[in-house]
Amino acid sequence: MTNIAASSYALAAIGFLALGLPVLAGWRGSAQRVTLSIACLVTAAWAGVLTWNAADQVLWNTAAEILEVLRDGAWSLFLVALLGHWRRDEAAAKPARLQLRSLRPGLLLACAGYLALLAMIGATHWQPGLLQTFGMPILAGYTGLAVYGMTLVEQLYRNKTIEERWAIKFACLGIGGMFAYDFYMYSNTMLFRELNPDLWTARGVINALTVPLIAASMARRRSWSTSFAVSRRVVFHSAALFGSAIYLLAMGTVGYYLRYFGGRWGTVMQTGFLFGAVSLLGVILFSGSARSWLRVSISKHFYRYNYDYREEWMRFTRTLSGRGPNLGERAIQALAALVESPGGTLWQRGDSGRFEPRARWQGVDGDMAEAADSPFCQFLESTQWVIDLDEYLERPEKYEGLAVPDWLLDMPRRWLVVPLMLQEKLFGFVVLQRARSPLQLNWEIIDLLEIAGSQAASHLAQDDAANALMVARQFESFNRMSTFLVHDLKNLVAQLSLMNANAEKHKDNPEFQRDMLETLDHSVQKMKMMLQKLGRTENAEKPLPLALDQVVRQALAMKSAFEPHPQLLVEAPGLMVVADRERLERVLGHLIQNAIEATPRNGHVLVRVGHPANGRAHAVEVEITDTGAGMSEEFIRERLFKPFESTKSAGMGIGVFESREYINELGGTMDVRSQPGAGTTFKVVLPLQREQAAATTA
To answer: Can you give the residue ranges of every domain in the chain?
Structure first.
């Protein structure tokens, strides 16, 4: 019992300390705040001393007696402050002064009683022999303080209006219960001339239970809640903690008596009973229905509104924006949490125009679809109402014009239909299962579900738009690849057409025959690679180390049938880059092809491979110079790298664009210098392979 008493009073000390410190921190000169913080802190100190005494197996000492008198006086002073300064306006100030004036004799008598009681306690401390003389008067004094406290509570509650009673009733209940329990305990002690240990042990828990009641009144009182407010989460966890403490205290008491009266089986009975009690408490604490019932009860009995909208909206937003495989499931979960529903199903408009099941969160399976022009969907869209299906069956006249489908009425545990509205149109609807604990729907819950449904609809619509955009980008990527393939086919057709045009003239020339066969072979290989590229998915060719001069030679070999013939100058052979051979060859081949087409037959095209002229040893440069028509600065700036812009009659305008895109992808750069009538120079600079770049730098 000693350990139980210490735990009981420790719980009271922690509760009043947690209540008093925030009130004291928010004090701004208000008498109510000052007296409340003093009362809480003195009570915490009193409970702390009794906790220490219980641990030392001492029920009573002088410090506990003095602190108890101060505790009773502090709570009485707080009640007087509430009685005299409840309203601040002039109309209410006069009744407050009349109340204080009528209580003035009682206040003076109470002060005299407090001083006399403290004097007697001090006398017994200095002369312990006086304890037998003053023992009964001290008990009578404690009983009188309890009676005086109950009188103040009665006066406070009786002299308030109905609106004011709404705010103070929980504080009056808690403080009045604390004084009433003291009156009962001390009356019992005076009657039997012995302090009951069980009553003394339970006193700490009784005092601790007043903490959530006073906190609830503080949340209702405007003048208190400006700097301090008790959230529903704190009240929920405090109520769960206090309830668990009371339960364990009661089970511990029963276990003690089982051991006391159980004889030889006493220890076994006590151990088994306590294990079963703790297991039952764990089941209750982890039960969703029990937590739901506690939340609903707290919101119903302690707060004017059912929700803490800041916390509810933050939780709703976090659920919608969280990680998960399906946004639809998260939307159902967010809506269900608002009404303690265990699950639900989402219907959303499909491509066929019908509302089809899209997601389920702990809901029943179903594949029934509803036409968008059905009376049920039309009613949801026109009224935007949250439909209580139970109420619809009991009072169908409240939902005039509503025709609920039979498949929906046959769903097990169906409860609410929440419309998901987007721009005044029905985007979908969610059917929620019946709440874990009975919940009375009112205008506040209905309005919250309606606005939450609109928020969920906007998230779902954004998710659908993102998916549609992803599909569109995939088609765009496919179309872009097709465009590049068509461009490559155009170049191959141009080469084969030129070779065919020269075949009649040079068919007997052995050198031309060799070039023709080589060109045909390269064209066939090129078309095979394009066919392979069309069929590639995840097996696409990966970038590999390549000798750049060999890639340039292969690109030039494809242009052997054209005039003027490009000249190759390799200043630094064997320089390696990391790239896709086919793409890099196509890029360089296109730049060489453009240089040939822009240069007359008597002109020159030079391709140089080596280190950049600026001395960058970790890079390699391909310079393509022609003596063709050249380009203006305006054309280079505004049209050269713009896709689908071309000066050629049969050109597609994507070759230079693709070349620059791929060079940038490899981490390189492409520079152009040109003058009209003087020719053009393209410089492609690519980074060397890491190993070769490191060796070159060293």
So the answer is: 2-230, 231-304, 312-454, 542-697
- Over residues 209-236, the pLDDT tens digits come to 889 888 888 777 654 443 445 555 656 6
Distance between start and end Cα atoms, the chain: 83
Q: DSSP character for 540? A: P
Burial category of 355 from C-beta neighbours within 10 Å (exposed 0-12, middle 13-18, buried 19 and up): buried
User: Which structure tokens are listed for 318?
Assistant: 């976090």
Q: Which CATH architecture group holds 542-697?
A: 2-Layer Sandwich (3.30)
Cα–Cα distance measured from residue 267 to residue 265, given in angstroms and rounded to the nearest whole number = 6
How would you class 418 by CB atoms within 10 Å of its CB: exposed for 0-12, middle for 13-18, buried for 19 or more?
Answer: buried
d(CA 35, CA 113): 20
How far are the Cα atoms of 321, 331, 338, 407, 418 from residue 439, in angstroms, in the given order? Answer: 27, 21, 11, 25, 16
Q: What is the DSSP letter of 638?
A: I
Q: What phi and psi values does residue 256 have, to the nearest 5 degrees?
A: -65, -45
The answer to whether 659 and 622 have CB atoms below 8 angstroms apart is no
CATH number of 312-454: 3.30.450.40
More confident residue, 190 or 115: 190
Let me know: does 688 contact 619? Beta carbons within 8 Å: yes
Q: Any idea which fold 2-230 has?
A: Rhopdopsin 7-helix transmembrane proteins (1.20.1070)
The overall pTM is greater than 0.85: no
Pairing of strands 370-371, 669-675: unpaired
Most confident option among 52-56, 125-129, 652-656:
52-56
Average the pLDDT over 69-98 and give the result: 63
Average pLDDT over residues 252-272: 64
Number of neighbouring beta carbons within 10 Å of residue 37: 22
Please give the Cα distance from 229 to 179 (Å, whole number): 26
Supply angle C-alpha 13, 16, 19, rounded to 5. 145
